[in-house]
Amino acid sequence: MDNRKAIMESALNLFYQKGYDAVGVQEIVECAGVTKPTLYHYFGSKRGLLETLIQVHYEELEKNIRCAAECEENLPGKLYRVARVFFDDNSSNIRVYMLLLALFYSGRKNEGFQVVAPFVQRICRMFIRIFENAADELGNMHGRQKQFAISFIGVLDYHLMMLINDYGDAEEISVPDEQVRGVVQQFMYGIYS
Amino acid sequence: MDNRKAIMESALNLFYQKGYDAVGVQEIVECAGVTKPTLYHYFGSKRGLLETLIQVHYEELEKNIRCAAECEENLPGKLYRVARVFFDDNSSNIRVYMLLLALFYSGRKNEGFQVVAPFVQRICRMFIRIFENAADELGNMHGRQKQFAISFIGVLDYHLMMLINDYGDAEEISVPDEQVRGVVQQFMYGIYS
DNA sequence: GTGTTATTATACCAATCGGTATAGAGACTG
DNA sequence: CAGTCTCTATACCGATTGGTATAATAACAC
Hints:
By secondary structure, chain A is mostly helical. Helix content of chain A is 75%, strand content 0%.
């Protein structure tokens, strides 16, 4: 019962630190203090482990994003709240999201990519909808909703990546509000703002 | 003599499609039509192969970016030229850059990350310098050069990734000028422009 | 107490991993 | 011709890969 969670926790940490393909099943179970049959009993395969890992954590991530996106504020306020979801480290949120990204970049023929791609697309669609729902604020977007969404996600992702890089191996990553607001503001009004 | 290039070409394709860790040395040499000792003669190790692969291609990428960044235009013009370097598929440029990114996201304890991190940092510094050199256009940036640079790179990367994803397995990826200009313009003047 | 089910460890599998020892082949130098 | 140097193939190395067959353990219902 508890072994299941231990395996998932170990796997998340190892995948996040070394990459999905660079981590062996043996290493995961050792880190979790169990043996291989236990892992294969719960998850069936290494891929199955990754799938449930992503799925379970993604639910919460999506919920958080959706919640932030449905708040009663103007677009900048919404984007700020969404950004905060990404920069707020709920200990596992960041690791999951970075794993998602890493696998998304890992090449289309990679097993991890195939697992992760649909989830990334769902995130993209959520962001596109944010801009569509702000049509009254933005006016005619001339079909550029997707461009807006991709740009915004890209900005968030890269800032996140750089933060993780700067912080080194530190566990906690805290991003001050003003910095998040600065990023959103620049996105909204350009770099002259 | 030619075997060396064949190995590098095969490795680049395989790493790009399946990820560094998911590709075995055996697969590389088979794809190149040689045997393992040939690879180890030229590159010493799998890591050595990756290092020379990145190094050789990076030189050209950096040259192209630097060239675009030194043109005699205003900032939007410069950014447009730089963006074009990224979106112009010189058959190998995109593959190399995406490999660079994939490894950068792959986790700090990953072998590939350690190889690639210094190159990504060099790219970042180049972008930061672009904004610093535009101080006369931008005025006092209040130390936000790095934020500008990271945001811009993030926007480019994610657009690139999405393009590759939309195009599927197609070899050639052509991005119309207007789209590139749209992205740069949004970055410069915000989404109301 | 017996049967059933879920969970776990021991021990194993073929296949592949990155890497190499040895030696042959070819080109060039003396 | 002998010697040397670069390059490459055969065949191999120990270690690890993802995965499993078997059986023991424990908890449960009856």
